[in-house]
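Lab notebook, page 48
Experiment: co-folding of the full assembly
Goal: obtain a model of how the components sit together before planning crosslinking
Operator: M.T.
Materials (sequences as entered):
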Amino acid sequence: MSPESLLQILVGGVAVGSIYALIAQGFYITHRTTLTLNFGQGDFLMLGAFLGLTLVKAGVPILFTALIVVAVLAALGVLLERVAIRPVGHLTLSWVLTTMGFGVIIQNVATAFWGKSSQSFPSLVGGKVVDVIRVAGVGIVVEELFIIIASILIMGGYLFLLNRTLTGKALAAVAFSRDTAALLGVDVRRMAILVYAIAAILAAVSGILVGPITSLHPFMGVKFAIKGFAAGIMGGFMSPVGIWVGGILLGIIELFSNLISSQFGDLYPFLIIILVLIFRPSGLFRDPTSR
Amino acid sequence: MSSRMSAIGVVVFLFPALALGPGPAAQAQEVKIGIVQPLSGIPVIVDFGESYLQGNKLAVKEYNARGGYKGKPVQLVIYDDEGNPKRAVEVFTRLLTQDKVNVVIGTTNSGNVLAVMHLNQQNKIPLMAGPSIATPITKKFADQPKNYVFRCSMVEEFQVNALLDWATKKTRSIGLLHSTTGYGLFAKGEILKGLEARKVPPVVVESSNPGITDFTPQLLKFKEKNIEIILTFAEEWDIQFKNLVKIGYNPIMAGNWGMSSGKLRDIVGDDLLKNAVMGQALDLNEPKARAWDEKMRKEYGNKYHWPVIASFGYDAANLVLKAIDMAGPNPDEIRDALERIDNFDAVTTGVPKKPYAKDDHECVDQKDVFLGIWEKGKVVRLKQ
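Observation: model returned without errors.
Model output:
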């Protein structure tokens, strides 16, 4: 295969991996702080995409659309924390069921509003179905570029939030010990609400960016959530950088797997994840001794 | 989880009965048609089921508006098999043993039809299969004194033959892209067999797993080998067309009748479908088909988006209703009448006036299947 084609696949892998990384960052922030995560994160992404589609079709400019979708999803993230996480706590695994149930409700609501069929999200720029930027013979869809940039910006934003702000230190304190953090004056409940809102906002952003490069249907979130979770596992759920690298690696492995043998395209990524976990049970970027 | 729950409905069109009032009509035996389609689950499968059902419903609505069977409206008993063979067995059993329907129409997944059709054969209640397309469906009981399985749908072998005859005349640079679903693997087998018979082996064979998000690696392999026609039997056509633009590659994408869905056109637009060729049996350039298409648009608005599937559904229900008119409600006699139907006025271009015979339970034959292309928002016959 020509170097140009290999580079094309690499770029595609980075773009797909960036989607996984965005999903995984949503898992990471809630897991780090509350030891829980939203198993309906993919359904939040789907809802973000459908809401965005509806607003764009209604003629709302894309930036306003993004703001509205982010606000709605953030509110939904808060609601999720209040009804599906807080009542059951993190000490049992009930939150797995409640967050999955929340996701199923979203799927059903989406089916009722937008139907079961696939729908298309127009390109975020211009009027074409697909807008491609071509550099040295390698094409990249504009939204793929946006996703790659968004995944890097969000990773950077996380690093700033967690390491350079008081809120970040409060989140770290809650992650270390909820009781100790509470004794130190940290509002633990507010922190939990905050991280679920952040995770939902990430799903909103991902939904709007993913919409134009795939087709929308009420069950589209599941595949992204599974791969996002796998990316998080591979990265180790320890740092935003690890999560990002895990996502990108998964995307690249997935696309090159299809190059080697498309019949087993989904097999190799998970085989590699299993191998990673055998040799590094805590993931690629996690200190094996850490909690 | 309402979307996954069975959609169980009994649709009764009461208007004719009310209009006619009591009398001899009230004495007529009730006729029930069971319908099974996937109405929840994988979107593309649901699209097939819903589109076929739209055709069924309109045909029955018109029949009942004309007075129904001896003045009584024909009832539809509709179940959702969720595209799941186990569920299909459950609902078919229920239709045949509890609901006591006179005839059954359905379903989309060929695997489901193959899993349930012995029930119809054993209970001697005719099955009008559709829009399932696996080749062997009507042949399984062909050696028995009475075969209760009919079909009004595309047949995979016919559309594959039409595609291969055309493609192999056009070029020897042919590639195959198929999914790893049951259908994709079945199609792969039929295509490889067909290409071998035509002595034109595929240059590249690629596959894709369900839920794939990017076809770039597979499509680049076709591009590197300068493949001119890709026979695509992987269902995520929208992603394929978008990826082709990304990699700057413009082959002919030839596939099954699924590519004639208005949903695909909504997603990728006319421009990307310029090089799409598909198996087809409805030519919307024909006046009769166009008039019926208008009627469907009026009836279902923007929920109607797949004319060829709906037209087969419409013809399937009309064939069943014609057999009921000819033979009455007895299932065994309905079966016999289906084989005798002559002078049938089908909407689907390929369905002949005498669709069935004792040894032919397919409503279309090889000669009735042609290739379609998108032209001005409609799928019309490809002129060869």
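Interpretation: The first strand of chain A starts at residue 132 and ends at 135.
Next step: discuss with group before ordering constructs.
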